Amino acid sequence: MVTNGTGQISFHAHQDGGLLFNGADRQLYGLDPVSGYCWLELNEGQAEADIADALVATFQLEEQTAREWVDRLKDQFDQNGLLACDQSSANTQEGKTEQTHVRSLPASPHTRVSSHPCQSFDLSFIVWATIDDLQRLAPLLAPLSSALSDTRLTRFTIVEEKPGFRNVFIDETLSEADIPVEHLITVMEGIIQTQALRQSDYLIALHCALVSRTTEGQGGLILAGESGSGKSTLSIAMSESGWVFGSDDLSILTRDLTVRPAGLNPCVKDGALDIIECYHPSIRSQVSFDRFGRNARYDAEIKQRCQEATVLAVIFPTYAEGAETQLERLDGGEGLQKLLAQCLNVSGDFSHGEVALLAAWHDRLDYYALPFDTPDAAIRVLDAAFPGTQ
After folding, report:
1. CA distance to 54, 321, 327, 373, per residue, from 235 (Å)
2. What residues are paired with 259 via a beta bridge?
3. CB atoms near residue 94 (< 10 Å)
4. The three-state (H, E, C) secondary structure of the chain, written as one string
């Protein structure tokens, strides 16, 4: 514990910074490491320029940023009477209250905070990053937020080693280095999905969209195909036409032969904005980011989701302007070959038994090609072929 000259103000360090308590007016302040360091040095009467130099050396802040934060924090401390020598005489008589109030001073650029717990397949995790970086990642993390308890959480830590670039650690191990900040959301999606596949129990992971007729997953359809085939656009449109959204990009086949979606919001490239805007008018207001050289954004307007689905058929959609929209049944062997072309990964212990399970699942499925001109035309065809529960 460190006190100021009056004995009314005390600082109590902890591993993430410290607590500053003003006993005169019973105010409690939470300080991050930079703020706590500044109070300690100001309390000792150190010059502001010297404190800023120490921040540069100790916390790897830029010189201008350090000076601005020392000035700002000193103003905050002064305004709240946390450095004043005559603090006690001003507050120990009239106006003193027995209730303790808890406050926070502004977080410094050095501060890292935790996201809410998140879930992707069998991976439970948190992201430890600056507030600015968590805001950048919010469109990615929001649909994965989960109320977890008594669960070991993998920690992804994002560190700024130099301006404009980030390093990502998984627990204490470096995973990716020198990530341009404009690519952070795309790289983090890949890191999270890769780690989720490593920690999950499944047979194969597929590059596909997933929809179902109910939130419980009855009447599921896989929409499989290369990027640009129309999977995302069609799955979003179907979610507004009586179908339930699961995923637009990644799903896994489990050992009980149900299909689980990754849980992310659908990713919309700029070329599809005009179509998606007809279903979700807010899409243009969503945060855009670079996705492998193309501008994209997550669609946050999905209203219902399925957590797993029993799949009836695999559809291979292909968007083509002017195409005749129709379902074309495929031979089972051809359909399975096309589906396995979209296999992203197999489980680490995939063996003879798993092959038998995959074959049994295949025997349940029908396969169709679906050239389509508009999402609405495709939905009419799919509704007729798979009426389910309207």
Report:
1. 54, 18, 16, 15
2. 253, 309
3. 6
4. CEECCCCCEEEEEECCEEEEEECCCCEEEEECHHHHHHHHHHHCCCCHHHHHHHHHHHHCCCHHHHHHHHHHHHHHHHHCCCCCCCHHHHHCCCCCCCCCEEEECCCCCCCCEECCCEEECCEEEEEEECHHHHHHHHHHHHHHECCCCCCCCEEEEEEEEECCEEEEEECCEEEEEEEEHHHHHHHHHHHHHHHHHHCCCCCEEEEEEEEECCCCCCCEEEEECCCCCCHHHHHHHHHCCCCEEEECCEEEECCCCCEEECCCCCEEEHHHHHHHHHHCHHHHHCCEEEECCEEEEECCCCCCECCCECEEEEEEEEECCCCCCCCEECCHHHHHHHHHCCEEEECCCCCHHHHHHHHHHHHHCEEEEEEECCHHHHHHHHHHHCCCCC
Q: Give bridge partners of residue 154 from the DSSP assignment.
A: 125
Among candidate residues 161, 177, 52, the one with its CA nearest the CA of residue 108: 52
Question: pLDDT 10s digit of each residue in the chain, 390 long?
Answer: 777 767 788 888 776 667 788 877 767 677 788 888 899 999 989 999 999 999 988 888 889 889 988 998 998 888 888 885 543 333 433 444 445 555 555 555 556 677 778 999 999 998 988 888 998 999 999 999 887 655 688 999 999 878 899 999 999 899 999 999 999 999 999 999 999 999 999 999 999 999 999 999 899 999 999 988 999 999 999 999 999 999 999 999 999 999 999 999 999 999 899 999 999 999 999 989 988 888 999 999 988 899 999 999 999 999 998 999 999 999 999 999 999 999 999 888 878 888 889 999 999 999 999 999 999 999 999 999 998 754
Q: Which residues contact 163 (CB under 8 A, 6 or more apart)?
A: 62
Residues 164 and 180: beta-carbon distance below 8 Å:
yes
This prediction's pTM: 0.72
Q: Could you tell me the two tokens for 131? A: 């507030």
Neighbours of 143 (CB within 10 A): 18
Supply 276's token pair. 């998606």
Residue 127's DSSP bridge partners are 156
Cα angle 181, 165, 144; round to 5: 45
